[in-house]
């Protein structure tokens, strides 16, 4: 393991040059002042440093037989909602029995390549409004919608019609981003891709290659770094992982092209370099990543913060990475778990009490599905 880490992982801040490759988005290969209320990665470092070495124990398989699962959201009763990228459906999974109940099909989704029904999130007011948010690829763009969830209706009819809250995010066969999450400030964050058109990432007027920060109604959030704009950070290639630590600091995972995948600490208004920088550059114009990996051992999608570390799912890398944090730095070398054990890994989410939900991604057209794929696993981590 030590040799692999030394060769494959550099704890750095930055970038190297490279062009766009159609297959790289999903793991097939290759500052303005901050405002109050926005999560800031510069909060005082009060937390203790997690140990350099952690552990992972697979507790059980929660569910199996899922088709192209992508997004995951936990209901107040502990059940899980999971989206199917290619089938455009949302399914409820009972975590005690593994029973799957179809909520419904999301209308307007146009699956193609890396696009389709992607990330999902529950409204901050879900207990009263019962709204499920989703990011999906339509015939014309990527967009964010919300739908009423009514479990009293028959299976297959429990989702209301999509109400579009934000649209116009560029779509492509690759690099559609798609992860959405409500932050500790109650605002809606969305990771977008540059859709294979590299120049979009540096254009602050374009929505591609960005992290967006919106109100639940889809308006630019108050306190955003560029007044009147939903753009929170830019210069990204394809963001598919968003997570906050216990000090409300935002982190994001990002696909590189041929050389470096990244884990970034996100600063409002900052430029993360793509396409001029991929991985570590040291160029003061760009924010360097807190950790980077060669693309064949990572190609990261979802991330989660648990037990003082960021946990990052690897698609092409087929492993789960642990990155212990101190402040907004990696406190020690990233550590790999479950290497080539469950195939491609798409999504991780906190499950409480030092546990993680982990979703595999072997039926997405790029994996090698085995009997039972795709599945949701429950892990205990430290």
UniProtKB/TrEMBL annotation:
<dbReference type="Pfam" id="PF07995">
    <property type="entry name" value="GSDH"/>
</dbReference>
<protein>
    <submittedName>
        <fullName>PQQ-dependent sugar dehydrogenase</fullName>
    </submittedName>
</protein>
<feature type="domain" description="Glucose/Sorbosone dehydrogenase">
    <location>
        <begin position="66"/>
        <end position="366"/>
    </location>
</feature>
<dbReference type="InterPro" id="IPR011041">
    <property type="entry name" value="Quinoprot_gluc/sorb_DH_b-prop"/>
</dbReference>
<dbReference type="InterPro" id="IPR011042">
    <property type="entry name" value="6-blade_b-propeller_TolB-like"/>
</dbReference>
<dbReference type="InterPro" id="IPR012938">
    <property type="entry name" value="Glc/Sorbosone_DH"/>
</dbReference>
<feature type="region of interest" description="Disordered">
    <location>
        <begin position="18"/>
        <end position="53"/>
    </location>
</feature>
<feature type="compositionally biased region" description="Gly residues">
    <location>
        <begin position="18"/>
        <end position="30"/>
    </location>
</feature>
